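[job 0417] fold request received: MaoC/PaaZ C-terminal domain-containing protein
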Amino acid sequence: MEYTRLPAIPNLLAQYGKAAVGAMPVVGGSRDGKSMPSKGVEVAGVRVDVANLAAYARVCGLRLTDELPLTYPFTLAFPLSMQLMLDPDYPVPAMGSVHLTNEIESRRPLRVGDELNIRAHAENLREHPAGLLLDVVTEIRTGDDDEPAWVQRSGLLSKRRTSLTPAKDAPRPPRPEPPTAAEIGDPTVVKSVSEAQIAEYAAVSGDRNPIHVSKVGAKAFGFPNVIAHGMWTAATLLGTVEGGIPERARYSVEFGKPVILPAKLGIYARRGGAGDPAWSLTVRNPKKLGTVHATASIEEL
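[job 0417] inference complete; emitting structure tokens
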């Protein structure tokens, strides 16, 4: 893998403008969806902005400590992921990609005073019934360490027909009956989320994708209103179990139905038994229990 050293973290807002141009068939060129470049990008000497970290903790409902929340490094590294997607050799357009899964391994805590070296690359392009799926892998090292302290794998889907896509006339599998409140118990917490809150998260994280900040932009992608960032949901889940997260942890999230704003979220946190994950987490619509926004697990490495 060949990594290009960038002088600094790229400007995410400027990247979105380039991504919009890249999505246009004539101006953006051809994305063949068949090959994956064997190259990545990296930035050295990144420092945490404490004011930004404090704002992130506040908008996600997390404690502010010297130790970075499991999900916070995503905001530092996401511009590198976008830089990969803007490369002409990247197989699919950046705009319209759907964040399906996210797995974070925290092998040792990252702290406010650490000097962070961040690198990212894409791999594992494969077919999915709903399109083409690939993984963007991000690693963060501290100082001169050879082994990464934090590793993330984001599963991104570009929607299109593939050989795995069911035929248009194929019968759809029956929908399972939604669970009852008696079957799944009471939520651990019910949280409200507003457009203003997600606009604040967009400003803090730098992720101003139109589907999160613009009704017009959201409707262009088929949503009736703006939707919450998946990684805001992932961070908010952590706030429910703070104090119970292992120091060396794997945090796996599978995103489901988008959170269309404004919304209420029922968060179900269940501690595992012997041999099970430390935590199993689910986010549901409290009025429609069959609508699952995300499922997650936290386990000790």
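[job 0417] notes: Confidence is low (pLDDT under 50) at residues 24-29. The chain is about 25% helix and 30% strand.
[job 0417] exit 0
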